[in-house]
Design a protein that fits this description.
By secondary structure, this protein is an alpha/beta fold. The protein is built from 19 helices and 8 strands. It has helices spanning 13-24, 37-44, 58-63, 79-88, 106-117, 131-137, 150-160, 179-208, 213-223, 231-239, 263-274, 279-292, 294-303, 315-348, 354-360, 371-381, 392-414, 420-432, 439-450, and strands spanning 6-9, 29-32, 53-54, 70-73, 97-100, 122-129, 140-145, 175-176.
């Protein structure tokens, strides 16, 4: 009997938890997995006693679904998604909906959207953030693709999504094509930046001040009651209290080699493709790459020993300076992320609603924080805001933090503590607010050696000039292009 509201394929932990979430909220779900024994294990285990049903073939699976049939994929990104679409096509009819809830790269979602639209099918690339806990109790959900599908899936997705403090669902329609997965990608890139900034604050407090894990726990717990109130600050405070079996602190025993799954790299590559200066996320990705060459770092450390000077300043003032530097750098990270989304929307002809995106990140997701409410207010006031740094609230917060920010970056350099994201955020701020940068000299160099031309301050934009710098070169210039 076709009585199932939605079907889900892929019973890894995220898929299982989303199914249980849907069931808790009154939706009738059927599940399928390529390894069919996982279906039985799920029904006899976590889903025992629920209304969830299972199928042992795609034919059986599709027969149980109400029309238009709604199918969510929770499988590994890349080729497995394409392969699964191919396997499902014989059972699909015009008007049916495929929802890809994995961490797919947005160009793949854009391609799948177009391919399925030609067949009369609706594709939704749906970013889901919040990890296992979020999937079970309410994630942030970012759907994009074929908007004709939205009225059919809106109730399910908004019901199972996290809710903001005001009760709004952390799920809304993002935009066309691959927009949903693009916004999820930028979310993950900002997550890279947030995590690296927190690690730099930790390293400064531990290395410069020699604070214990107990002291660090107290500081981060206190910070979580300020503007930095967020999930990542909260769990960081908790991490400092976790003990290993021998009673020592676990964090000190974890190898300093960071992993990554690629979404931060995708964000940085997209920024380069669009010519956007998303420097902080780029540095956060490179910081993970640097951590990965552990043995090489240890060998270099033997060649360049350094004994930093002892700290002689006001300890409490330095802790507050680090907090404000973290806050200011976080503002820059989000400003860059929203600048990138704006550029992508223009390039892809998407219609993104930035206040809604900030709201969707308020709950359920890894970067959820009080801070996102201020971003939503900024875009609610000015939907076409060029950057958060043009908003009066964020201007006030940056100016409040600036002196501390500069002191921290200077002290880090003096004490040989690497702070790539603190430093690049400050450098971006200084460059972004500069009416004139030294790129005039750079253009002169390009024209000198390659006849690449330049524009002049006393002539209209778009008019290009070439100089015969040595008197021996020609007057022919290179063709103009931007890279």
């Amino acid at each position: 009997m076709a009585d199932r509201d939605i079907g889900l394929i892929g019973l890894a932990v995220m898929g299982q938890n989303l199914v249980l979430n849907m069931n808790d909220n009154g939706f009738k779900v059927v599940v399928f997995n390529r390894t069919t024994s996982k279906v039985d294990d799920f029904l006899n285990g976590p889903a025992k006693g629920t209304d969830v049903t299972g199928a042992h073939s795609l034919e059986e699976f599709f027969k149980t679904l109400k029309r238009p049939r709604k199918v969510m994929f929770m499988v590994k990104a890349g080729d497995p998604v394409d392969a699964l679409i191919g396997e499902c096509l014989p059972f699909l009819e015009p008007g049916d909906i495929i929802i890809d809830g994995g961490n797919s790269h947005f160009p793949d979602s854009e391609r799948r959207y177009k391919m399925l639209k030609e067949k009369g099918l609706h594709f939704v690339g749906c970013g889901i953030s919040g990890g296992e806990e979020g999937a079970r109790h309410g994630p942030s959900i970012l759907p994009g693709g074929d908007e004709d599908a939205w009225p059919e899936i809106k109730n399910i997705l908004q019901t199972i999504a996290a809710k903001s403090d005001e009760g709004d669902p952390c799920c809304d329609w993002v935009g066309e094509g691959g927009a949903g997965h693009y916004v999820k990608m930028v979310h993950n890139g900002i997550e890279y930046g947030d995590m690296q900034l927190i690690c730099e604050a930790y390293n400064l407090l531990k290395t410069v001040l020699g604070l214990s894990n107990e002291e660090l726990h107290e500081i981060f717990a206190k910070w979580n009651t300020t503007e930095l109130d967020s999930y990542l600050i909260e769990i960081t405070a908790d991490i400092f209290t976790k003990k290993d079996e021998d009673g020592s602190h676990l964090v000190d025993k974890i190898l300093d080699v960071a992993g990554q799954k690629g979404t931060g790299k995708w964000t940085a590559i997209s920024a380069l493709d669009l010519g956007m200066p998303v420097t902080l996320i780029g540095e956060a990705v490179f910081a993970r790459c640097l951590s990965a060459i552990k043995e090489e770092r240890e060998d270099v450390a033997k060649l360049y020993p350094f004994t930093p000077p002892s700290f002689s300043g006001n300890k409490e003032q330095f802790i507050e300076d680090v907090r404000l530097a973290l806050y200011a750098s976080k503002i820059i990270s989000y400003a860059q992320g929203f600048i990138l989304m704006r550029a992508a929307a223009e390039d892809m002809n998407w219609h993104l609603h930035y206040g809604s995106i900030a709201l969707m990140w308020r709950g359920g997701c890894i970067i959820r924080s009080k801070f996102l409410g201020d971003i939503k207010k900024a875009y609610d006031k000015h939907p076409d805001l060029r950057s958060l740094l043009f908003d009066d609230f964020f201007k006030k917060e940056i100016l409040k933090s600036e002196a501390s920010w500069r002191r921290v970056v200077a002290k880090a350099a003096e004490m040989a503590v690497p702070t790539p994201c603190f430093a690049t955020s400050l450098s971006f701020f200084d460059g972004y607010r500069s009416g004139r940068l030294p790129a005039n000299l750079l253009q002169a160099q390009r024209d000198y050696f390659g006849a690449h031309t330049y524009e002049r301050i006393d002539e209209p934009r778009g008019k290009f000039f070439h100089t015969n710098w040595t008197g021996t070169g020609g007057d022919v210039s290179s063709s103009s292009y931007n890279a």
